[in-house]
Amino acid sequence: MTALTPTTPMTTLSGGRLRWAIADGWTVTRRDLLHWARQPGPVIIGLLFPVLMVLMFGYLFGGAMTVPGGGDYLEYLLPGMFAMTMVFGLEATMIAINTDAAKGVTDRFRSMPMAPSAVVVGRCTADMLNSSVNLVVMLGCGLLVGWRAHGSVGATLAAVGLLLLLRFALLWVGIYLGLVIGSPEGTVGVQILVWPAAFLANTFAPPESMPGWLGTIAEWNPLSSPVAAIRELFGNPAGGGDSWIAGNATLMAVVWPVVLVAIFFPLSVRRYQRLSR
Amino acid sequence: MTEPESTIRVEGLRKRYGDKIALDGVDLVVAAGSVCGLLGPNGAGKTTAVRILATLLRSDGGHAEVAGFDVARQPDRVRASIGLVGQHAAVDEVLTGRQNLDMFGRLYHLGAATARTRATELLDQFDLVEAGDKPVKQYSGGMRRRLDLASSLILAPKVLFLDEPTTGLDPRGRNEVWAAVRSLVARGTTVLLTTQYLDEADQLADQISVIDTGEVIASGTPAGLKSKIGGDRLEVVLHRADELAGAATVLRAVAEGEPEVDTDARRVSAPVADRVGALTETARALADTGIAVEDIGLRRPTLDEVFLQLTGHKAEEAVA
After folding, report:
1. Which ranges of chain B does DSSP label H, i.e. alpha helix?
2. Distance from CA of B30 to the nearest CA of A (A)
3. pLDDT at A3
């Protein structure tokens, strides 16, 4: 009988709504951290997969690559791989959002008297943490294969900041895609499309080495400016390029993520509200 | 109206999706502490109604109150008074049962310590103590449903919505869920249950509303509704199809309505009032006329037959 005695919620917690928004956001974040503990397999594979790609591109294909303007290909490759790791994070966000919607967990949250922001805040915090760990592993992997950050401490931190800004922007793309794609099967399609989208940039090969029109597309890929900017900040070979977009990489490394957030944040919010229609 | 805060009150609820009308002026009143069964085929509007009442969906018109609060104007108050069990077991499959309950308890703002205690209580109440620390992935369908139910009862809500709670469960899982619902009802929770099974509504509900294409077409107690649609049916299956006409004549003598003949299944059935009397009389009469009977028995009308009686069309046609 005791189990059914009404339990009183602590609605009187001082600080009111904001305190609860933070507390609820943390509870949802904590759920993801518990996922890592319960299911370390996928997390470890997620950490090691980019490492495998470094080894593949660095050693398997790397010998055949020349960087325009000179420089070691591994030094050129690693900043591209750091950005690539951020792009893989988009898939994780999308799948998590989509699974919760498909399994009815999103509806359960929406039927509860919790802070409505908590689902998104929790998702953001957990995914940013996950991507930060990924980035640390990749930096370690880079150092092991001989990549170095040659710039000042400030420049190195700025490069890391740009990568996390890119991840934050892709978070909103992932949330939107996760809400738009109805069935979990659909996420597989997006996962496949992420590959050419991320390869058609300056991540693995310099756009100058591509046919003219393709090189232009690659340079205007929102991924390319952040990659070019962090190559500069790390003091790694940048490959050059004399177009406007290549010349303003640092500016565009900030502009692109801001543009992505400006597009996908309102789209995600609208899509979430449309669940009630 | 001594306990107005524990009721569901719906007046003229309307909802459309584009051109499709999902709810066309639904009225519903559920008394405190009672179980209301919303019975209807797929696409009748049952889930839409529950989603509006659970604040997941906005209505286009009409008025709905749950536990004394307006669902459109006071969604937060409604959310603090309800539990929702949807068609999926809405729990995290990677986490354990205990971790799920603990998380939901924190999100209901119980605080970490109380959430933990409450999780233990609920695992015990729903017979999940042994499975409590295993990941939900390893649970059977019935266990998932019970955990889902437990997650909806963390605050001991005044009103519980059950949207087709036994769809997709095997008979054992169904019995488990029914037992859990009965014990809740015994403790005074008001329940709105949607189902496609007359049997389930009959087992659990004090009051049934039959819903079809967004409208309540009949409501009353299970007994009242059954007498309205002719109660139980006597069904006879024969060895030979050419004797069906003879059997129909025999049934006509005891039946409340015109016997229905299904030639492919070699079956005649008709609604009867005096159940056992009709059965024995028919069995004797069939034996006297020498018609070979393969099977004879009484059964509840199916949803199809209820719909045929109430609307003149079959349940499946309502979907199309």
Report:
1. 46-53, 75-79, 97-107, 112-125, 141-152, 171-186, 198-204, 222-228, 244-254, 275-289, 303-311, 315-319
2. 20
3. 42
- Report CB contact under 8 Å: A7, B58: no
Q: Å from B84 to nearest chain A CA?
A: 7
Pairing of strands B69-70, B61-66: antiparallel
Q: Which of B82, B95, B107 lies at the smallest CB-CB distance from A24?
A: B107
From the list A172, A180, A162, A154, the residue with the least C-alpha distance to A249 is A162
Q: What pLDDT shows up at residue B316?
A: 53
Instruction: Using the predicted structure, report yes or no on whether residue A225 has a pLDDT greater than 50.
Output: yes
pLDDT-derived band at A223, boundaries 50, 70, 90? very high
Give the pTM: 0.82
Mutate to test the interface with B, among A111, A117, A183, A272 (most CBs of B within 10 A): A111
* Gap between the Cα atoms of B199 and B216, Å rounded: 19
Query: Hey, which residues does B162 pair with through a beta bridge?
Result: B85, B193
Name residue A116's amino acid: P
Average pLDDT on B225-252 reads: 84
pLDDT over threshold 60, residue B318: no
Assigned fold of B4-227: Rossmann fold (3.40.50)
Nearest in space to B139 (alpha carbons), one of B152, B127, B155: B127
Average of pLDDT values for B163-181?
Answer: 85
SS3 at position B8: strand
Query: How does pLDDT run across A139-183, given as a tens digit for each residue?
Result: 999 999 889 989 899 999 999 999 999 999 999 999 999 999 878
Residues B233-257 have a mean pLDDT of: 88
Provide CB contacts within 8 A for B136, sequence distance 6+: B89, B91, B92, B93, B94, B95, B96, B97, B100, B144, B147
Using CA atoms, how far apart are residues A54 and A240, in angstroms rounded to an integer?
Answer: 22
Query: How far, in Å, CA of B297 to CA of B268, rounded?
Result: 11
Hey, where are the domains in chain A?
17-274
Compute the average pLDDT of residues B90-115: 94
Q: Tell me whether residues B94 and A104 touch, CB distance under 8 A.
A: no
B159 pairs with which residues across the strands? B82, B190
Lowest mean pLDDT among A89-103, B4-18, B236-250, B272-286: B4-18
Nearest 5°: CA angle at A91, between A87 and A95? 165
> How close, in Å, is residue A68 to chain B by CA atoms?
48
CB-nearest to A114 from B86, B107, B121 is: B107
What is the distance in angstroms between the Cα of B111 and the nearest Cα belonging to chain A?
7
Q: Tell me, letter by letter, the H, E, C secondary structure of B89-124.
A: CCCCCCCEHHHHHHHHHHHCCCCHHHHHHHHHHHHH
* Nearest chain B residue (CA) to A9: B110
**Domain B232-299 carries which CATH code?**
3.30.70.100
Q: Do B118 and A7 touch (CB under 8 A)?
A: yes
Binary contact (A35, B110; C-beta < 8 A):
no
The closest CB to that of B156, out of A4, A276, A277, belongs to A4
